[in-house]
Write the structure tokens for this entry.
Amino acid sequence: MIGLSVCGVGLLAPGLAGWAAARRVLAGEQPYRYEALPEPKPDALPPNERRRGARTVRWAIAAAQEALQGSGVAAADAAPVCASSSGDGEIVVQIMSALAQPTREVSPTRFHNSVHNAAASYWSIACGSRRGAVTLCAYDASFGAALLEAAALIHSGESAVLLLVYDLPYPEPLLAVRPVREPLALALVLRGEAQGPALARWRIAPAPGPATISPVPISELASNPTAQALPLLAAFARNESASLHVGLASGCAVAVEARP
Amino acid sequence: MTPLAITAFSLASPLGNGSAAALEALRGRRGGLRPNDLEGVPLETWIGRVAGVEETPIGGELAAFDCRNNRLAELGLRADGFADAIARARARYGAQRIALFLGTTTAGIAETEKAFAQRGADGALPAWFHYRETHNLFSLCDYVQRRLGLAGPAATVSTACSSSAKVFASAHRLIEAGFADAAVVGGVDSLCLMTLYGFRSLELLSSTPCRPCDAARDGLSIGEAAGFALLERPQPGERSLALLGYGESSDAYHMSSPHPEGAGAAVAMREALERAGAEPAQVGYVNLHGTGTPANDRTEDAAVFGLFGDAVTCSSTKGWTGHTLGAAGIVEAVISLLCVREGFIPGSLNVASLDPALKSRVAIAAQVRPLARVLSNSFGFGGNNCSLLFGTLA
């Protein structure tokens, strides 16, 4: 297993406005109350993108900024690992609708913002970092795949990883075939096991064979694949040790041994 | 880094099915581009279309995966005996110890395009549309994993046009971490309206066959392809082809324009050499990203010249294949492996007059000589760069 230190968390979802609020809910100190969040406008983005840019980019970068604050890791020193199960649905629907018209006029800005690595790229531009950025998709197992990649990156010698996992609801008509109903963006600043103070420590390895995936503690958010991170964060919020399984493709899992 | 043995690879590209067909086309200077003949797509451009996709429907229990992208994946799996090689690896390692990393930028979004054209009066998509098995970026891995009977960690890497180069880096890390014993890597991207009209909207499509490094180059030609490789820990004394190094970087500059001096590209190339413990002088050939857009070739040239001077021979093979986007990394990885194995540099196609502003040593004609190491560049939108160093195990 590979050891990770969790040094910072950023979390945005309805009823979970930032990690401090989410921690209280996940620890059982406060009941969960569903409440839509105002659209995040992260100041790391240029004004144009902050207001009108891709929605996934805004959510992801707002979470990233929260996670880095107080993590002791500089933005440019963390290698980004991004994952989204479904990418930016608004842009896809706009482009698909345009292509269904006789003129097929695609907006060039939407086209370059449609790449799966848009959030990673805006992030690297924002913090002026030339570090390589990985961007993954593993359908409902995207968080698990990203966690494994982050652990492998730390093992390969990266001093810190910024894990950025997000999914936003698709607009119709795609919502009907991909029912992610609530937005959720999660950012984690991860370092190696023995590197300084940490909020929590996780040991990670793939678990062969079918495993019981730990259930999502807030059912209102369960339609979002990124919510699969919530059991891990709940153990963390309650200061508990736990052995959990996060979903990975084809029925295997990522085993995580968590301790405060 | 510890090199990884590359014990099998395959390619289905506009040059034909199988890597032997690609090698023959490169040697014979026969390009795979043709005037756009996609039905209902009145764009004046050239495309690299793979033969046989229309005749390879996916049926049986995986029928929901049927789409151009997965058909192309199927052609790639059948080529070069690749699926059989994986069956043998599965018997050796166990299905759960073989990871899968594949690159794509649009997966089977052509199905979504068709579905949007058939929306009902209520706006709903037609019932035949299978989002998960065709549109979602993971559909490619999902199909290949089921088709090959693999059960290890799997993920689609999607970083625009560096996607199927970066799969080599992710696979190397996962194996080094002990999370897998071997990995299938590769990539598939297929022709669709989104990329054709998207690149047109950015004014990056050429109306002629693309001419990387030509003084009059005016854009890219879009192609499609599928390619795969099997990566394993080397056995003592093994003398196979190998991944020797990889480098990844970000431009941190712009969403759709490369850094003007190729600063990100230079970081990726330098890192690949450093990981391999190799000096620039030990590289025999650089397979350029070389899309044929004025900006890409100019900035890549600045980065290559900055690192190698004019000492190393380089060229882009996109004049043969077109830009296969998310598959470009694996297409050019396979071409680089063929170059090492055969001792052969393909040169350039469609170039009438080499751009005198380029300072690197760009080859037009083919060359035949032993190559110990070949570097392959892949750069994507958002400034996402990856360089791979290939050679043989010592």
Notes: Chain A touches chain B through 66 residues (CB under 8 Å). The mean pLDDT of chain A is 94. The first helix of chain A runs from residue 19 to 26. Residues 2-198 of chain A form a domain with the Peroxisomal Thiolase; Chain A, domain 1 fold (CATH 3.40.47.10).
